[in-house]
Known about the structure:
Bound molecules: hypoxanthine
Number of strands: 9
Oligomer: single chain
Strand content: 15-25%
Number of domains: 1
Strand order of the largest sheet: 5-8-7-6-9
Distance between the termini: 32 Å
Number of helices: 7
Mean pLDDT: 94
Low-confidence stretches: none
Amino acid sequence: MEGLMEKLKEAKAFIEGKTKGMRIEAGLVLGSGLGDLADEIKDPVIINYKDIPNFPVSTVQGHAGRLVIGELEGKNVMCMQGRFHYYEGYGMDQVVFPIQVMRLLGIEYLILTNAAGCVNVNWEPGTLMMITDHIKFAPECPMRGHNADELGVRFFDMTRAYDPELQKIVRKEAEKLGIPLKEGVYMFFSGPNYETPAEIRAARVLGADAAGMSTVPEAIAAAHCGLRTIGISCMTNMAAGILDQPLDHEEVLETSMRVKGQFTALVKGIVKAL
Ligand code: HPA
């Protein structure tokens, strides 16, 4: 992105103008049907994406498209209610722009959430999965092009992209709350079509447990700029070809509605424990 640092700094300054010196510890990105958690933030500062300089604008149904900033479980958080997806037509650089803004705002932790197709045949819709690693075979990378040295180095490590120490916290919180939590590998597909049954079989052979159209670009950008990241997927449907039925967005929204309570409790527990 041309003049990236300037654009990021403009967005940062605008947000800081609204939050008035608040120190924000964690960033949350809420996936399809999981956005209600933002409503639990106390005395929130709400900023529509469309008002933030250089921010892309969210278009997909079920994504509100705003930042909700304030206190959750005793910590100041910045919640993205709605995210930017590659399939909407944004460049990868636009998709990760808010993550980089979070970094400039001094945020340390990032919690990425999503709705995903369940590739693992031993699990069922409604399962929550902590992402321990990912696979991206799509050719685009958000860090392609000029490297913003102020954010991170050119060739950056991905072995700790999903922070091992934070994973321990997530495990402990899930156990404490009695929430069954699986762990596994999320495979990125660029969408907007759901995958073919053959693609899902391939994903399984490659070691994936979940398939989805988000999160990975953000996790890559977060690894680049040194944000400590957690990923949680809600398996909203069995991925293509596992059941003898077509996939649709309604099922995705229905399942995320059904597990919203558990999901919210888990994320709140994590925020508290950070
Ligand atoms: N595939 C990709 N993305 C998804 C799916 C899926 O089956 N379900 C929810 N998001």
